[in-house]
């Protein structure tokens, strides 16, 4: 049995969870190790518009490969948020 190693990209289903709610969404996530600070930084876009969510909200992003805490930001005109985090990614 081998452990899943962090990849540099993930496109697929995810679940976003907050203290008040949860959403089944599609995400496009990317990431890379940054040698300047020694951390893996991941980021991407939630491909589904979310109701009742605010800019800057912290959520847990869950995929079949894991879970990680991320922050929602940069709402686009279609109601989709950017999501980002540092450390082990959810993919």
What is the string of helix and strand elements? EEEEEE
Work out the helix count: 0
Q: What radius of gyration results from the CA coordinates?
A: 13 Å
Compute the average pLDDT: 91
3D shape: globular
For the secondary structure, the number of strands is 6
Kindly name the structural category: mainly beta
What percentage of the residues does DSSP assign to strands (E)?
A: over 45%
InterPro entries: DUF4873 (IPR032371)
Organism: Nocardioides luteus
Domain DUF4873: 9-91
Protein name: DUF4873 domain-containing protein
Walkthrough of the structure:
The mean pLDDT is 91. This protein has strands at residues 9-17, 22-34, 39-46, 58-63, 66-73, 82-86. The protein has 91 residues and is mainly beta. The protein is 0% helix and 54% strand. The chain is built from no helices and six strands. It has a six-stranded antiparallel barrel. The protein has a single domain (9-86), classed as Thrombin, subunit H. A hairpin with an 8-residue loop joins strand 5 and strand 6. The protein is globular. It comes from Nocardioides luteus. It holds the Pfam family DUF4873. This is DUF4873 domain-containing protein.
Write a brief structural summary.
The chain has no helices and 6 strands.
Give the arrangement of secondary structure elements.
Layout: E1 9-17, E2 22-34, E3 39-46, E4 58-63, E5 66-73, E6 82-86
Keywords, separated by commas or semicolons:
about 90 residues, Thrombin, subunit H, about 0% helix, six-stranded antiparallel barrel, mainly beta
């Amino acid at each position: 049995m081998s452990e899943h190693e962090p990849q540099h990209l993930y496109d697929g289903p995810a679940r976003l969870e907050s203290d008040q709610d949860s959403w089944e969404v599609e995400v496009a996530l990317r990431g890379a190790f940054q040698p300047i600070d020694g951390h893996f930084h991941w980021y991407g876009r939630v491909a589904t518009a979310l109701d009742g969510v605010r800019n800057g909200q912290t959520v847990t992003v869950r995929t079949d490969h894991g879970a990680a805490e991320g922050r929602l930001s940069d709402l686009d005109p279609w109601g989709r948020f950017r999501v980002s985090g540092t450390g082990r990614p959810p993919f």
